[in-house]
Every structure is written in C-alpha cells, then in structure tokens.
C-alpha cells in the first residue's frame, strides 16, 4: 500500500514537473520589459508630438518580441503582456541572435561576444534539463509494468538531474539579467536622444514557473529513488 502511494505521488509530481518544464521551455516570457519615453522617430528624426511612446518587450528561449502600447496608467502592468492585450503588429527575432534583452543592434562589441558565449551555456543547460526530465519520464513509464527497481532508480536519478540542470538555468538567467544584460548602457544611450526615458524590467511567468518545476522534479526523483530501493529490498 505504501509503495503504491509513493508511485502515485511520484508519478503525479513527475508529470507536473515535466509539464511545467516544457511550458517554461516553450514560452517566451522569461523576461518582461517596458520602455517609456518621448523619442524622435527613427525614420525621419522628428519628434513624436503625441506623447511618450511605450514599447513592450518579452523574451524566452526561442524568441524575443516587442510591440508598441499606449501610455497611461497601467502601462507597466504585466497584464499588457497577455495575448489578448498584445498588438497584432508584434515584431520578433530569434533570441540567440541578440543576447541583450533590449538592444538589438550592439553586435560588434566585446560585451556582445561574452553575452553570446554565456547565453550559449544557458541554452545547453536548458536543453539538457528538458531532455533529461523527458527521458526520466520514459524510464518511469517502462518501470511501472515490470516493477523494475533499476528503472525506478534510473528515472529518479534523471528527475533529480533535470532539477539540478534547471536550477542552474534559473541562477544563470538571474546573473545574466543583473550583470550581463547591458541594461544600464542601453538606458544611457536612450537618454541621449529621448526625453524622460525609463525602462522597467521584471521576470516573466515562464521564469516564475521554473522553480515550481524544479521542486516537483526533485521531489519526484527522491520518491522514485525510494520506490526503487523499497522494491529492491523486497525482492532479495
């Protein structure tokens, strides 16, 4: 009875961990940014007389997108990033082509090269985490019909490994945003040509989901290791 309970909760937490990791991996809302300022039009270098221009940015593993919004109360609200509130004329580019959150043109600097390398390692850990947790799920599915303690242990180990990989992904992303994203230089360059320019940066819901998935993955991994150990002791 206790063994079946452990398998049930291990499977439940493992399935939730896989689902959350895949959602965090596939959605482009790891970082949300809103820039507000009155800047000259890029095409004719004339000032926009309609007031401050609001540009919303969001980015994730695959894509970095931006679209214009309306100034006013709530311009910096996270609700502006919901699908129903986004502009149909949204622009997107591959995230790996521009490792800085906002500045899409700084590609000839030493900081750019460092950011590319850093984001490359972040990408590798993200892919390893996704592949590992999916493989762990297959091991557990194969272990269930045969009550194989070896497969349960292997699956549990993969779930724990995936949790470690995603923990590194989260930590590296925080370091990237805080130390390597070049936001200060971007803001200074904008202030040279814009009036009352400001940029607001926050972590998005894809980022917030990752720690939840890490908890489920680690907990499921420990349960499956315990299940495998219990089956091994009872088969001796």
UniProtKB/TrEMBL annotation:
Species the sequence originates in: Pleurodeles waltl (Iberian ribbed newt)
Magnesium as UniProt keyword: no
Taxonomic lineage of the native organism: Eukaryota, Metazoa, Chordata, Craniata, Vertebrata
Cellular component, GO, one term: plasma membrane
Primary location class: membrane
Pfam families given in the database record: Claudin_2
Record's keyword terms, sorted: Cell membrane, Glycoprotein, Membrane, Myogenesis, Signal, Transmembrane, Transmembrane helix
Domain of life: Eukaryota
Location(s), subcellular: Cell membrane
Protein name: Transmembrane protein 182
Transmembrane domains' residue ranges: 7-26, 121-146, 158-179, 205-227
Family per record: Belongs to the TMEM182 family.
A single BP term in Gene Ontology: muscle organ development
UniProt-listed PANTHER family: TRANSMEMBRANE PROTEIN 182 (PTHR32012:SF0), TRANSMEMBRANE PROTEIN 182-RELATED (PTHR32012)
Bilayer topology: Multi-pass membrane protein
